[in-house]
Every structure is written in C-alpha cells, then in structure tokens.
Amino acid sequence: MPPPWPPAAPPPACARSLADLLVALSAARALPKGQQLHGHLLKAGHLPATASSHAPIAHHLLTFYARCALPGDSLRAFLDLPAPPSPAAWSSLISSFSQNGLPAAAFDAFRRMLAAGVPATDRNIPSAAKAVAAAEDSSRPPLAPHALHGLSAKTPFAGDVFVGSSVLDMYAKCGHLADARRLFDEMPERNVVSWSALICGYADAGMHSAAMEIFRLALEEAVPVNDFTVSCILRVCAAATLFELGAQVHARSIKTALNASPFVGSSLVSLYSKCGLVECAYQVFGEAPERNLGIWNAGLNASAQHGHTTAAFQRFMDMQNAGFRPNSITFLSLITACSHAGLVDEGKRYFTLMKEYRIEPQAEHYAAMVDLLGRVGRISEALGLIESMPMEPPEYVWGALLMACRMFKDADTAAIAAKRLFETGSRSSGAHMLLSSTYAAAGRHMDSALARKAMRDAGVRKETGLSWLEAAGEVHTFVSNCRRHPRSNEIYNALEKVGEKMEAAGYVADTSAVVKDVDKDEKQATVRYHSERLAIGLGLLIVPEGVPIRVMKNLRVCDDCHNAIKYLSKCTGRIVILRDNRRFHRFEDGVCSCGDFW
C-alpha cells in the first residue's frame, strides 16, 4: 500500500534527533553525509517543511550548507522553510551569503527581511555590516554604512558590544575612519574586535602613527589582543620598516603564544623581509607550526623581492606539494621573481599557468609582465601586451613601461607611455620626472625642460625623494643635499673621505640622468649627496662594525648611487642593505645582490 500523502510529521523526538545530527555534520563540514541526509529528508517527506516540527531541520540544513561554502543550497533550504521564515532563519541566510563572498546577496536579503516586517537583531546586523564592508566601492550604495548604523542605533541592541564592533569594523573597512573613531569613543563597552578594527582600519589607510597610538592604548588598558590585532600592527611596522618596534611586537607574540598563528607568522615574514632581514624571514617561515596560504605567499614574496629566484620557484613547488592551491597573489610573486632575474620565458609560463588554475590575470599581473619585458629591453613587446589587455590599463601599468623606457633611453616610446598615463587622470609627479629624465638621458635637454614645464603648468609638484635609517630606536630621515640633521657636518665629512677612496678605486660619477643642462661639476655635485647616501653616511657613524647598514628609500635608486654604493661597500668593508621602490639591494664587497638588474 502506498504511503499516505503528505507523509505524517515525524515524532518530536525523531525531529530533534535529525536536527542534532545535522548540527554534528555541520560542525564537521561533512558534505557527502549531509547531502545523503538531505536526500533522505526529501524522500521521507520531511522537506519542504510544512509542520513546525520540520522547521528546525530545514533551519539546520541552511546552516550546514553555509558552513560547507554552498550559499546557493542554503537559499534552497531557506525556501523549504514554512512561511513566514523566522528571524533566526533570515539571520542564517544573510550570514550564509556574507560568509561566502556574496555581499550584494547578503545585503539584499537583509533589505528583504526588513521589508517583510522582520526586525533587525544582534544576529543579522553584524552579518549585514560585514556584507557592506566586503562590497566593492562601485557596487556599494554610498550611504549604506551610515544607514545601517542609523538602523542599529534605533534597535534595542544599540549598546551591544558585538553590534557596535561590527558597525565600527564596517566603517573602518569602508574608509570612514572619522566615523569609526567617533563610534569607538562613544562605545560604552569595547572588546578586542573593536580595538582590532580601528587599528587595522588605520593600518590599511597608511595612518601608521594613529594605528600605533591605538595599539599603545590597548596595551595600557590591558586589552587581551588576539592574533588579528598583532598581525595588523606587524603590518604597520613592515610598511614603515620599523624593525626594532616590530621585533618587540614579535617578542610579545612569543610570550603570549600568538606567534603560532599563521596570520601572525605571515606578517612576521613580511616584516623581516621588508626590513631587509630575509634570513630572519626564512627562519620564521621554517619554524611556523602551522602554515596557511598567506604565510606561503609571504615566504614566496620574500624570496622574489630579494632576488632569490631559485628559492621562490622551489617554495612554489613545496606549497603545491603541501596541498595548497595558488591564488593571484602567488602568481604575482612568481612573475615578480622572474622580473628581478630577467627570466622572460619562465615569467610567460607562470602568466599562462594562471588560466589553468582558472585565475584571470588582473592589471597588477600585466604590470609585472610589462616590467619583466621592459627590464630586458623588449619595450615594443611590452607595449603590445598593454594594448592587448582586456581591461583599461591603469596608470601603474603605463608607469612600468615608462620606467623601462628610462632604463633604455627610449624617449619616443616614453612619450607615448606618458601621454597614455596622463589620460588616465593621473597627477603623478613621478611620471613627469621619468619622462624628463628619459629625454635628458637621451641628450634631448630641450624636451626634458618642456616636460618639466608641463608638470609645473599642470600644477603637479615633484615628489620628494626620502631615505631613512633606523638605529637605536630612532628613525633618521633625509632628503637630497639635506643639512638639517644635527650630525650633518660629520656625515658630509665621512662621505667626502670615503669618496676619495672610491675615486682612487675607479669610481666615476654618472650624471646622465641629471635633468638640468649644466656643467660637469654642478652635475656631479647634484648626484653626490642624494638622500640614500646621506643616510648611509650616518650609518657609517652610528651603526656598529659588523652590523649591516639598512636604508629605505621611497623612490628608485638612481644608476649613479647604485654604482657608488657598490664602491662604498668595497672601500669600507661594510654591508649596505637598501630597499628602494623596486626591490632590495644587498651591497657587499663591491657587488650588489641584484646583479645590476633592477
């Protein structure tokens, strides 16, 4: 005899058992077993849910698919719920979309929930805030962050620390840092999420001093910071190359056992790499008890930035053997490694390999390929690659081509690249100066002067070249021909003395990049005291013998300074580690680690 239709509802005890089983499968993310149970529930008539006893089953099924990263199946489970869906079901659906990279769907579900008369709660507001924060700037309604904050303020959960922290995090990730700070100051209670959100918001915006200040306040108030907080502050130290402060944060993370986190580990690898201590970066990577894709990418990028190309390729193989699937960051680091070594064929192979992993090359990958081709003088091929891009080339792609033109004195292509770069709306002083110096290097001083005049007429100011050196807990910053440092006389005297030894060893100043058409002596005086040389001069005075002199520079080191520092390392016996905006250079005994290829 056929079973009655519709089937009778399962006894309450049976429904609870099925719900408990789904909870267990959800926690284990056991997708095949969960799908088998789902099929059984459909065949047995327990779904779509028609009785109240069925509702918990459908609700737990929704959560199960969310945790298995299948938000579409979560939506189908939601539709199987008896109408009208409960507030908890709406919250689970919004969370499913938000946690699985569908911010637009999450926010749309939140709005449909409100339209259905279901109130906002302490469960769905954080999910909606996460969705707003994750949305692309172009697709996010401009007033969405403030609208959601206003809505949450009208609910009984306005003072809830979890709701407040989620709204604060949303403001920070949307770049509304003034609103984030105002909310932070007004919160009656704060937790580690509140502190971390503000610290990371400042860090992402490049407001390093503000991030450090909030971190200091958190420590003063004995906030139990977590691995996310420490990771953010380490990123600040890495971006500002604050090695000594970063080392202190590292020591603190060891005391609190947070250094075991792969998030902290990846930030530590980046810190030591960006501060020029790549061996320390490798040590942190090698000692990491747990590795995620982030720390693998950090280790690979460290090898790429320091010109350890073979190590980068080997790390990529090790990462794959460990079961990790490369992402777009992985391939960007690999192409960068090829660029720093001039390995065109290998770079093209990795660029092509991206599609095998179903990763579409983005503008930054094209920029890296342009840089690779440009460094070896294949400028026409680089220009052709740009013209073939499926998206509009952003300014940094044209900037990479312009840099190549400067290296090979290709003034005609430089003019094309500069024109296209300016058409993007860029007001970069670097592009104007690159064009001017390319003309100067090619002997076209009239065109060089016209390029500088065009920059002045456009109201663009030249970016100041800065170099800095950290020693004894203090950061010393220099600009070219600067005499503001309290030890300026000693610095200049030290450089003059070593300069005499350099000239005796065969050093001759290269003034080809000096944009002004002046006599030889004035050109030599122009390049002799560039900012990086002044920083190195101070290093000769205050950095102990046997300790590398580590200098950071915000612009590319010029050809003459690069050559001069090689001679300086030979004549003084000192190791100099210089990071410019292109790569790391380790000068030792008259040789640079870049092989004069940068």
Mean pLDDT: 90
Structural class based on helices, strands and sheet pairing: mainly alpha
> What is the CA-based Rg, rounded?
29 Å
Question: What distance lies between the first and last C-alpha atoms, to the nearest angstrom?
Answer: 82 Å
Q: Note the beta-strand portion.
A: under 5%
Amount of helix: 55-70%
Which stretches of 5+ consecutive residues score pLDDT under 50? Answer: none
Coarse shape: elongated
Biggest sheet overview: 6 strands, mixed
Read across the widest sheet, the strand sequence of neighbours is 2-1-3-4-5-6
**Count of DSSP-assigned helices:** 30
Number of beta-strand segments: 6
Task: Give an account of the 3D structure.
PPR repeats lie at residues 86-120, 160-194, 292-326, 327-361. Keywords: Repeat, Signal, Transit peptide. This protein has a six-stranded mixed β-sheet, covered by helices on one side. Helix content is 63%, strand content 4%. Among the domains are: 207-290; 466-592, no CATH class. With 598 residues, the chain is mostly helical. Helix 5 (87-99) runs parallel beside helix 7, helix 12 runs antiparallel to helix 13 (227-239) and helix 17 packs antiparallel against helix 18 (309-321). The model has no long low-confidence stretch (mean pLDDT 90). The protein is elongated and about 90 Å long. The protein contains 30 helices and six strands.
